[in-house]
Specification:
Layout: H1 2-6, E1 15-17, H2 30-37, E2 46-49, E3 52-56, E4 62-67, H3 76-89, E5 93-97, H4 126-137, E6 140-148, E7 151-152, H5 154-160, H6 165-168, E8 173-178, H7 186-199, E9 208-210, H8 232-255
Length: about 260
């Protein structure tokens, strides 16, 4: 706060995110801090608070939510609506990709040729090109998937494997798993951590693990699709989205200055 005042930066705006990865003390000048962070063009938008460096007045994030269930009878759409609803309520743009229904079920077929294997000038199927565009423009990903046989739903990996790290890299991801049993897809979440890390869209530490997803009352009254914000899953969802928002703003700022 002292540094912000001495540098002539606004100190009364509502903070939104913390984009820088180092700690600074009040003895540093803004010039040295901005120089170290290589964010000279952001100097008018950052300030120091007791929580650290923040970016003010940041535009909404572009979040892509990918579902994993491909079963005809599923609870996945309700879970995705509950998770996506909170993303939208936070003011961010939301795109939901359901491999079962998107692009007339194009991604329900097993992958035969990855997007990155097409050569320049070669005709790329429109669904593949459109999906690549959506993922490329995303600031963050949310994976909403059931646990199948203690691991990731194959419909999710079949879709995501069409694209490489050049599409996913330098973006955070959030994991939301669910199951009919008591563990809420925890083992699927563990498997997703290694998978997403390899793709470059690093998962945040907080996760939503929703047990007994089929149980009556999980989403409130009949026909509702909202988690109780005071429940354990509801609080976990908020923690995950808090972390995802923080990292997404930080990574977007860094990508824009490469």
């Amino acid at each position: 706060h002292q540094l912000g005042r001495s540098s002539g930066l606004p100190t009364d705006a509502t903070p939104e995110v913390l984009p820088c990865h180092f700690a600074a003390d009040s003895s540093q000048t803004m010039a040295s801090v901005v120089g170290r962070c290589n964010h000279r063009r952001l100097a008018a938008f950052i300030r120091l608070t007791p929580r650290g460096w923040i970016l003010q007045d940041a535009p909404p994030l572009n979040v892509v939510l990918v579902t994993g269930s491909t079963r005809a009878k599923q609870i996945g759409a309700t879970v995705a609506e509950a998770v996506g609803g909170r993303v939208a309520e936070r003011g961010h743009a939301l795109t939901v990709i359901d491999p079962r229904t998107a692009w007339d079920g194009h991604f329900m077929r097993l992958m035969e040729k990855a997007y990155f294997h097409y050569k320049d000038g070669e005709s790329i199927p429109p669904p593949l090109e459109e999906a690549a565009g959506l993922l490329r423009s995303a600031d963050a990903l949310v994976l909403c998937t059931p646990e199948y046989n203690h691991t990731i739903a194959p419909g999710l990996t079949n879709f995501m494997n069409h694209f490489g790290a050049s599409i996913y890299a330098q973006k955070p991801s959030g994991i939301a798993t669910y199951s009919a049993g008591m563990w809420g897809g925890a083992r699927c979440g563990v498997a997703l951590r290694a998978y997403l890390s390899e793709l470059g869209c690093l998962p945040v530490s907080a996760t939503l693990q929703l047990p007994s997803a089929w149980k009556s009352g999980t989403f409130g009254e009949a026909g509702a699709s909202r988690l109780d914000p005071d429940s354990v899953p509801g609080k976990a969802l908020e923690r995950m989205l808090d972390q995802l928002t923080w990292h997404a703003h930080a990574m977007r700022a860094m990508r824009s200055h490469e």
